[in-house]
Design goal:
Chain lengths: 136, 221
């Protein structure tokens, strides 16, 4: 049974590729899309696949992406957004959760921490799925 | 209403300082993560390919160590940036609560019943960091209790063994991130920013540290 489709939204292409690479090792069968163009926000999330799991960077094109969360929650309550940031203050974490993020997390500094984080977020049922990995 | 030009200029400079501190601490962590994670991915890939190289191993290890050091220092700057930006609510706490569990030598028997106008957790976290797993001896004195509106203070004095510089923990940290980031002195510097924003002060005559906290009127029951 396919797991949740995954969308990575990060304007730092290096971070997006690293996350996709680690995801591929944790959930090799997951369908993963990548968006590195902040100009496509929030449409790229609103138009994502049903029940998508979205990993969204905190800052996109210099803008605070927490501001997009209300619109996403309103239009797509089925989508689960995990906000990621290189540095996240507790106040900002709470603000993201209030705005509809399912989690708001500081990006881990090691691969082991990334793998543990993604395994927890994906859960045992979501570490499988369609084998396609596409980048847009 | 007129605004004093010197005050306005100071506010602009503080805002610029906050902005710079935020940018330095937050924005630099992003490329740092790229470098450290890429090094790990490269190491994984080489291992999977069966490539062994002593020079490569040393280089990757050095890269990881350098990234870890840089991360430690950036985390310290981030903490200071957060302390400067943190939204503070009016708070108060009894000294008995703040100092519970420590070996306290009060100047007078009533001192521990005094209440201070700061968030107790900010002081407690700093003391806990300095104490670590060991005991911490704190000398407690109060001054100006007869007129707290005129600057009554509770003063906590103790030793921070790793502190070698002054005149405050924040000066020590910013003077040498390499030496103090990730140590109890970072926690003291973090507390210093928060406590000073609440009307208190922290000074250091290394290794002695003195925390002055504004007194509230009366005593805790």
């Amino acid at each position: 049974m396919p797991g949740r489709p995954i969308l990575i939204v990060d304007d730092d292409i290096d971070h997006a590729v690293i996350l996709r690479t680690v995801l591929a090792s944790v959930a090799p069968d997951a369908t993963t899309e990548v968006c590195t163009d902040p100009g496509r926000m929030p449409d790229v999330v609103i138009e994502s696949a049903t029940d998508a799991l979205v990993f969204m960077d905190r800052r996109l094109g210099g803008a605070d992406s927490i501001a997009y969360l209300d619109a996403v929650r309103e239009a797509r309550p089925d989508v689960r957004v995990v906000l990621l940031s290189s540095a996240l203050a507790e106040e900002d974490r709470m603000r993201a959760l209030d705005a509809g993020a399912s989690e708001a997390i500081e990006k881990p500094g090691t691969l082991a921490e990334w793998r543990a984080l993604l395994a927890r977020i994906l859960g045992p049922d979501e570490r499988s799925g369609d084998a396609a990995i596409r980048a847009s | 209403m007129s605004i004093d030009p010197a005050t306005a200029q100071d506010e602009v400079q503080q805002a610029l300082l906050d902005s710079l501190l935020y940018s330095v601490s937050h924005d630099l962590r992003s490329p740092l993560l790229t470098m450290s994670l890429s090094a790990e991915l490269l190491e994984d890939a080489l291992a999977r390919a069966g490539v062994t190289s002593e020079g490569g191993t040393v280089a990757l290890s050095s890269l990881r160590q350098g990234a870890a050091d840089l991360d430690r220092m950036l985390q310290a700057l981030m903490q200071i940036s957060r302390a400067r930006r943190k939204v503070l609510e009016p708070a108060r706490g009894a000294l008995a609560l703040i100092l519970g569990g420590y070996h306290v030598t009060p100047e007078d028997s009533d001192a521990l019943r005094r209440v201070v106008l700061v968030d107790p957790l900010h002081v407690r976290d700093a003391l806990d960091a300095v104490a670590g797993e060991g005991p911490l001896a704190v000398r407690l004195s109060v001054e100006g209790v007869d007129d707290v509106a005129e600057g009554g203070r509770a003063r906590l004095e103790f030793e921070a063994a790793t502190l070698e510089h002054g005149p405050t923990p924040l000066h020590a940290l910013t003077g040498s991130l390499k030496q103090y980031a990730g140590t109890p002195i970072e926690a003291l510097a973090f507390a210093q920013v928060l406590i000073e924003r609440q009307g208190g002060a922290i000074e250091a005559d290394a290794p002695r540290v003195s925390i002055a906290l504004p007194l509230a009127g009366g005593t805790a029951s």
